[in-house]
Specification:
With 566 residues, the protein is α/β, with parallel strands linked by helices. It has 21 helices and 16 strands. The strands form 4 sheets. An 8-stranded mixed β-sheet has the order 9-10-14-13-12-11-15-16. Strands 4-3-5-6 form a 4-stranded parallel β-sheet, with helices on both faces. A hairpin with a 4-residue loop joins β15 (504-508) and β16. The two termini are 36 Å apart.
Length: 566
Amino acid sequence: MATNGKPLRSREWFDTPELYGWLRQAAFKAEGFGEPAYQNKPVIGICNTWSDLTHCNAHLRQLAEAVKRGVWQAGGFPMEFPVMSLGEYNMRPTTMLFRNLMSMDVEESIRANPLDGVVLLGGCDKTTPALLMGAASADIPAILVTGGPQLKGNWRGEELGSCTDCRRYHTELRAGRINEEQWAELQNSIVRSPGHCMVMGTASTMASMGESLGIALPGNAAIPAVDSRRTQLAEAAGRQILTLVEQDLRPSQIMTREAFENAIRTLHALGGSTNAIIHLTAIAGRLGIDLPLTLFDELSRTTPFILNLKPSGEFLMEDFFYAGGLPALLNELRPLLHTEQMTITGRTLGENVAGTINHNPDIIRSLDNALNSEGGLAVVYGSLAPGGGVIKPTAASPELLTHRGRALVFDDHDDMEYRIDDPDLDVHPDDVLVMRNAGPLGGPGMPEWGFLPLPRKLLQRGIRDMVRLSDARMSGTAFGTVVVHVTPESAAGSPLAAVHNGDIIELDVPNRRLDLLVDEREVQRRLSEVPQPKPHFKRGYGVMYSQHVTQADQGCDFDFLRAESL
């Protein structure tokens, strides 16, 4: 078999007079495969992020078997291989510290092995972008299959979504509104199956980004993890990858600038995770495509928010699937999209979604009946965020989107945890909670610490939101008036490092401003007195990370992994 008239890539490993060509085929025989199983067939890698430590991906072994069936059906030879798995709940200090490492694992596993195409199996938050980053760099035919969302949670008759409602009820626990027994009961009720969070968190958002980029099959994003249609889709991906190999259709031909603009508009229409800005920027950077923050904000201004899902709305991913899933939403967005963009189906995005039906217009709104005339994310700039900061207005308190208050500063996460519930803490509802040293360098790894807990003394008074800002990230499942990704980060000597308690901070989301109302000369004087941060690592991967990670506005990728053209 040839690809567009060229020999299969895998033949370079086998069609050689050297001993190693013979040994490589002998290795297949050692696994029990006779020559008819692999001879002159495309070798398809199944890149699996299954792990017992990653509950979102706990069912990917079963999906891998479905992919294998599809590959066999279409005349290929499937070879499953593991890569690093990033379990959001278990890895410390944060999975984001290891996203780039996993992407290198993916890229080099593809490059080093006799693979003609690859099916990427992911799900949990950072696994999907890491897979796409690695596949973009390796640039052989690839299809993304994500694990799908969990089933809805249900506690005492209330439908729940992890972990939006985990956070909501944890707040009530801290406020004394529910007890420990109820909290334990809720733990058994909210996560009922394998799969990723069933709100529009980072995992759901990145699955949607893969589909809107055209690198996943239509419908992939929303099918529940345990639904048989998820397994059928995985099998279909196994068949389709053979078509991509035959046509030599690569990620670089699918994930173009126009495809990324489609994904960004989809992100805003979904009210998706702030993390997607970082991940899309990193994926695009591997392909030599620059996605400045100004582009995200420009497209947000002209993309209505139309998906009524938590944390910005009412419903859950399972409801989204029954309403028609991402194809139905993309069909509503057609006037704003590059519908001529090619996808891994061999058809354009417009052809993929043509004729799809919106079964519930309360969940998937039309452009004329949008939840908001602008998109779900906004980028703010100013003296406190020279390189930008990100907020999700659709999950914020409208009355706080224009706000002026005094700063209450926490020097790091430990400082915040130590003081936040101190009954003597000098804090008022109009204050702005500020945390620094939580960025790519300062965290390290830019943990999801941006959703700062409110002081217990204010929770007990019924306060449920305040303006909060940091150089950290925030879980896509979180909510509130929270500015994250403040760039440059404080550990890089930004104005955030110069904020003192009592300084006045002004947030003006409609005008996209975030300002520290302190004279610039005073800011520079303070910065001159800030001590240099101590290194977090003395050896190993952490040292390499610290030396090469970029800031949030460049996707937090390693500088040497971005395309040379950038």
